[in-house]
Amino acid sequence: MVTSADMRIRIEERINQGLRGQWFPVAKSVELRADRPHGITVLGERLVMWRGADGAIKCIEDYCPHRGAPLSYGEIHDGNIGCRYHGVIVDGTGTVQRVPAMPDCAMEGRKALKDFTVAEHSDAVFVYLPSVDRPEPPELPLPPELSDPAWAGFLCTAVWDCNYRYALDNLADPMHGCYLHAESFTLAFGSKQDLLELDRRDAGFRVSRVGQVGENFDWTEFEVREGGMYCFLDIPYPPAAGPGGHMRILGYVTPVGPKRCKVFFWRMRKVEGLARAAWRFLFRTHLEERHWRVLEQDRVMLEGMPDDARTREMLYQHDIGVAHLRRALNRRAKDQLAAEDALETAAE
Q1: What is the 3-state secondary structure (H, E, C) of 26-89?
Q2: Given 140, 182, 214, 248, which is the most exposed site by the fewest CB atoms within 10 A?
Q3: Phi, psi torsion values for 29, nearest 5 degrees
Q4: What residue ranges of the chain are covered by domains with CATH 2.102.10.10?
């Protein structure tokens, strides 16, 4: 009999690992080539990706079905991937095409590896990790700014050596901006005292400061959809930052392992024509380094937190966004575990 304590442990373990049944950004488009494989890890699962001759991306388990060597160490042969250890060639569906060392080997023609659905958008590559209750990929959830030609921006990625939950909590916590980033170019303004309010939306929620708007990183909105989750926020820009309004950050966090995640941030500004060209030039030559410093402040702080920080914390009013986000993850973990348990019971 499964006790409530056992279930709490299972839920905690599942959330720490990362929730399946979602799309996750895993790489920049420029990292995927037709002449060499690219290995990634997502939710602890090792995958290998490459482009076929037509530019379409293939994604399968990073595991040679012969002896388990990483296919990501191998080579591309006519759109398929060859293992460097013994030369076994596998296609993008995970089916063994050829065993060069033994023609007509029984392995040939067998589907030996799982393959994964891939999507490419706005300079990023997304992979769908299926779950028992969501085996087929739903629509890829994307911020509307990424499809709106009025917005221009840049994608940046970084690997942080902390559990992905800390990165999500950090985004759901606007009050840290005026403290951690108090010496930054854009976030050095505003009051260090305030209250926060939570606004539940049809697909997600918004957490914002009550007494201050437009001075600092004053609000974050999370979109929580069937196919995954992303967030967005605005960074106030002074006139010295060039044409356009505030800079909008569009963010995803991808779990890699228990103590590692990868963040994907699009830095966007609503500018067109000559103003767009001026903004892009100014960002690349002057502002980008300053924004990387802000990200580094987040990374260093989160990586310095102990792994058991959540079990020792004392939350207060400013943490309403963090608490709401955690409840959403908790509900999704329960649904996944219930579906898996039902499948196991049916099989028995």
Answers
A1: EEEHHHCCCCCCEEEEECCEEEEEEECCCCCEEEEECCCCCCCCCHHHCEEECCEEECCCCCCE
A2: 214
A3: -55, -40
A4: 28-129
Domain 144-330 has CATH 3.30.1340.30: no
Q: How many CB atoms lie within 10 A of CB 195?
A: 11
CATH 1.10.510.10 corresponds to the domain 28-129: no
As a whole number of Å, the end-to-end CA separation of the chain is 16
Condensed to tens digits (0 to 9), the pLDDT of residues 177-197 reads 999 998 887 788 889 999 999
Amino acid at 166: Y
State which H helix or E strand residue 16 sits in.
helix 4-17
Identify the bridge partners of residue 159 per DSSP, sorted by sequence position: 262
Span 198-257, pLDDT tens digits = 999 989 999 999 999 888 899 999 999 999 999 999 998 877 778 888 999 999 999 999
Distance of CA 166 to the CA centre of its chain: 13
Instruction: Report angle CA 43, 299, 229 to the nearest 5 degrees.
Output: 45
Looking at residue 43, its pLDDT comes to 97
How far apart are the C-alpha atoms of 94 and 65, rounded to whole Å? 9
Q: What is the dihedral of CA 70, 73, 74, 75, to 10 degrees?
A: 140
pLDDT over 90 (residue 317): yes
Residue 175 CB: number of other CB atoms within 10 A? Answer: 21
* Confidence class for position 1, pLDDT limits 50, 70, 90: low
Q: What length does the chain have?
A: 348
CA distances 78 to 64, 116, 117, 285, 335, Å, are 18, 20, 21, 40, 42
